[in-house]
Amino acid sequence: MLTTYTLRENTCDVRGGLLDAADDLTHAVWIDLLNPTPEEERAVQEALRLEIPTREEMQEIESSSRLYKEGDALFLTAPFLYGADEGEYDSTNITFVLAPTVLVTVRYATPKAFSTFALRVKKQAGPLLRTPDGVILHLFEQIVDRLADILERTSADMDRASQTTFRNARHTGIKANRRDVDLRNALITLGQVGEVTSRAGDTLLGLTRIMTFVGAEKANAVRKENQAMIKTLVRDIRSLGEHANTMNAKAQFLLDAVLGIIGMDQNGIIKTFTVASVALMPPTLVASIYGMNFKHMPELDWVAGYPWALLLMVASAVLPILFFKRKGWL
Length: 330
Description:
- The chain has helices spanning 18-21, 38-48, 55-58, 63-66, 112-123, 125-128, 132-170, 176-216, 218-221, 227-290, 305-327; strands at residues 2-8, 11-16, 30-34, 67-70, 73-82, 90-98, 103-107.
- By secondary structure, it is of the alpha+beta class.
- The protein folds into two domains: 2-266, Beta Polymerase, domain 2, CATH 3.30.460.20; 267-327, Magnesium transport protein CorA, transmembrane region (Methane Monooxygenase Hydroxylase, Chain G, domain 1, Up-down Bundle), CATH 1.20.58.
- Strands 2-1-3-7-6-5-4 form a seven-stranded mixed sheet.
- Strand 4 (67-70) and strand 5 (73-82) form a beta hairpin.
- Helix 10 (227-290) runs antiparallel to helix 11.
- The radius of gyration is 34 Å and the shape is rod-shaped.
């Protein structure tokens, strides 16, 4: 889908579709290509005389394929986290083509920051849609704000999982079923935290590389009034990156703690079965001896033989248990 954003008399003129937006391609400040068709790509390339990267080219991981300059245009590609609200976290590569008169974005998914920024542009076209470098920097601000919200929400989920985990570890009176459900939910939450922080880290790393590249080209690519935004963005991105790394380390610690608690519970169960099997071995031995069918067994004719055998089996089961308790193994 092709969407153009054009500034007309301090208001935003938005047009979608190839037929409606074709006349505005040369006047648009921002051209957004979402799952573009070959016809839309060809129309943009002919109107702007720019080579739009294909989806296969956007997937390449070499830095020279993601960040480069052709003529006066900068080509910037990075992975971006999306799907956080639906709980289906994924990353998509997005390319920004920053030319002197227009910004072109090529994407195959819609991170919420894009839809939110598009609404802001319609309401605040004057300050946001004045120049293409201003558009891309404000769009990066929106992306960083969105990542901050995601990390804050994820951090809160991780804190709740942490409290549940250690509360269950302290209180042994909690029912086993509820304890297992809580630990299982904690594992799922920590897995989601790891997924989010990993993908958010990839996004922040991509943004860092983009800002470094743009900063090196800012004399020609960014107007003087917008250059101060680069320092602010770099500082915010660095701060979020450190926060994501801290969250990742904390999630790993909590994961180890949850697995340790699960291991302790399993060890307790195994210990119970072990004690039970050891305690039942002597009675089994006694019963096996008196269950033999030899002709000459003195106890077979003994009136108190049966009660004696029962008493001996009970005593042989109780004594190991008392021994284990004295040693502190139970």
